[in-house]
Every structure is written in C-alpha cells, then in structure tokens.
Amino acid sequence: MGDGEYHAKLSPSGAHRWMACPGSIVLEASYPDKSSVYADEGSAAHLLASWALRDRLDPSNYLGETIRVGENSFVVDADMCDYVRSYTLLVREYAEGGELLVEQAVPIDHLTGEHGATGTSDAIIMHAGARRLTVVDLKYGMGVRVDAEDNPQLMMYALGAYEYASLLADFDEIVMVIHMPRLNHVSEHVISAHELLQFGYVAAVKATDVSTAITHYDALDTWEADFLNPGEKQCRFCKAKADCPALRAEMAEIVGGSGVATIDDFRDLVPLDMYDGVGDNYLSIAMSKVSLVEDWCKAVRAEVERRLFEGKDVPGYKLVQGKRGNRKWADEEDAAKALKAARLKDADMYKKMLISPTEAEKRLKGSPQQWAKVLAHVTQSEGKPSVAPATDKRPALAVSSVADDFRDLVKTGKLEN
C-alpha cells in the first residue's frame, strides 16, 4: 500500500512508529525524504499488479514493459511476473462473488486530523451480502516477514476502507491479509468492525499526541521524556535514530551501565541452578535490547558517513579510500583474444559449471513432469537453530543439555564409570 494523493505526515506506513513515539515525527522532519531502489522496485511491482487486476490479464502480458519509479527504471521480467501473478491469483480468490476495488484512495483524515489526508489501498473487496470487508496488502520486499495480526499500518488502511465502503453497505467482519510473494508468505487476520473501530479510537488519540508534540517542541522542558519512546519496532526505520536524544540516553544506559563491570555483574548470566539458585531475568532483558543496539550502531555509522559525504565536519573522523575491489576483465572478448595469443587452450581459459536447482526450476517451469524428475536429485540442508522471541510462531526446538546426554549414557550402561 502506498500513501495517497495528499501525503500525510501521519502516514499508515509509519503508524507503528508515530503511535508508539509521537516525537519521532518532529525529529524526522529535518531529514530528507529519500526512497531506495528496493522501495521503488516494490512500487513497480504494485503498478504491474494493478494493471493485471484492472485489465483482468495475466502479468505476463506486460513482459518487457519498462516501469519508471523516481530515478529508477525496472523492466518487467519473468520473475516479477511470477511473484505478481501469485498475488493477483490470491486477490481474485478472495474477490470471488464480491466487488473488487484496486488501488482505491481511502480517507484517513478522521484518524490523523490532517484535512484531506488519504491512503491508497492495494485491494479492497466488498461482500455486501455477507457484510464482509477484505483488505489485501502486497509487500514485495524480501526482508522481515510481516504478519497481519496487530499490524497498525494494515489496520489504518482497513479503517480507511471501512470509512469509504460504509457509505455503500454495512459491514460486520473485517478480513486483513498480507501477501509477501517473494517469501511465499500469506498472513490473514479477521476482526469485527467493532474491534477495528476501537483501534481507530486509539489511533486518533495517538495522532493528537503527535500534534501536541509538534506544538510544544520548543517550549516544554519535559518534551523528550513526554514524547520520545525508544523501542525496537518504532526505531528500526526511523530516520532520526542516530540523533535521537532519548535513544542515545538508552544506549548509554544499556552499553555503559553505571560504572566499570565486575565479575559480580555476570553472575546473572549463568544458569539458575548455579550459585544456590541466584539469578534473574537480566539475560532476557539484555537480549530484548540487542537488535535495538545493533540498529542504533548502524544508524550512527550511516549518519556519520552521510555528513562526511556532504562535506560536514565530524570531529575525530574523515573519509578515506577503501579497499580496492576484486579484479575483473575490462572486456571479456578482448581478454579472451589476449589469452589465446598467450597460447592458453580453451580448457584452461573457461570453467564449466552445472546450473543451480533454482535456475533449473526456472528453465523447466513449463515442464512440471520433467522438473519433478529433476527434483529427486535436489537436496537442501535444514535451517540452523537460531534465537527468536517467545512470540515467534515457529515451534521451539527440544534441546537437551550435554550433562543430560551423559547422564542417559550412564543409566543405560553405555558409558562406564
């Protein structure tokens, strides 16, 4: 989903940030609003999806078309067609028997308080007879997997769609869907209209907090404490996190502590069954801050680099020439002629490699039976265990301690004392 004709300061895409940290809107105002090639690629995919849905065509009908977004141009290739096709098929499945609206502008000014503010919903589906309203959001990125449940951005767009659609019919059930085709991820969350409107009330209150933060920015002594609230989710994509005083203070507290560390500071890092049961949740608390610290470090590095490239002074630091890149042929054809002149044989000049399973699947996608035979020769390693929050939907791995393994060997007689 993208912001509509009037670009609201309190955009749905930033709702997770300004609802949690009202002052972030003020701090971000001094930073340029720059896009990225990844964001522009997502906009191109959205445009292709809208063409296919509105024209009721397969995305492959636009193969080879050039889509320009900002300063970047993207050629519609087979991969983009495949991913967008996955999304359009999902939308059409949800839309069966209902009315589909594509790239529909919806009002959000009743939530943000900004006159005329709108957003643009990727797909809205109205099933008036069933009193059901569905909002589908295409996310073309390959980064963090996003779910529909408790998603402020999606709920704001759902509220805008509800405000728009309620003029045409009554709706009791709201279905919110996120599709990330490049991650093969679909997430659906269903709530009642009453629950959606409750969230709308909270969003409107938070928007008022932002307005207050803007009004009192230069006048209130307690402004930072009242309106800045650092946290992993709201800080992740905040443009101002390198300069945020509240985040800087939290980093100083987390990293610096109150003094020089001693051995006693690490007693809580050992298992709870040691030191006569002494221990608390320090490690859990510290782990919950790791991503925030890492993101802050990256933001500081990026901000220092940006200022130096703009010719600004950052005391103690300067720009230097980095490590030279890997060597490559300026022109492979000319290089091949030179190697032949040096009397190298073709066998010594070229390396032959088998294509990857991914490339093989692309080339055989028109022959599913042949691909099925080839698939029998494909192997894939299991994912390595990794640490995740307890709220992660993946099941926890059952892991026994090394001591337990040895204890079991002794009990079974497989290990002699």
Describe the structure.
Helix content is 42%, strand content 12%. The chain has helices at 15-18, 24-28, 37-55, 78-95, 109-112, 152-165, 193-215, 223-227, 232-236, 245-256, 282-309, 332-341, 346-349, 357-363, 368-375, 402-411, and strands at 2-3, 66-69, 72-75, 99-107, 118-127, 132-138, 173-180, 185-192. Strands 1, 4, 5, 6, 7 and 8 form a 6-stranded mixed beta sheet that branches. A hairpin with a 2-residue loop joins strand 2 (66-69) and strand 3. It starts with a strand and ends in a 6-residue tail after the last helix. Residues 1-6 and 268-279 have low confidence and may be disordered.
Write the layout of secondary structure elements.
Elements: E1 2-3, H1 15-18, H2 24-28, H3 37-55, E2 66-69, E3 72-75, H4 78-95, E4 99-107, H5 109-112, E5 118-127, E6 132-138, H6 152-165, E7 173-180, E8 185-192, H7 193-215, H8 223-227, H9 232-236, H10 245-256, H11 282-309, H12 332-341, H13 346-349, H14 357-363, H15 368-375, H16 402-411
Parallel strand pairs: 6-7
Antiparallel strand pairs: 1-5, 2-3, 4-5, 5-6, 7-8
Helix pairs in contact: 3-4, 6-7, 10-11
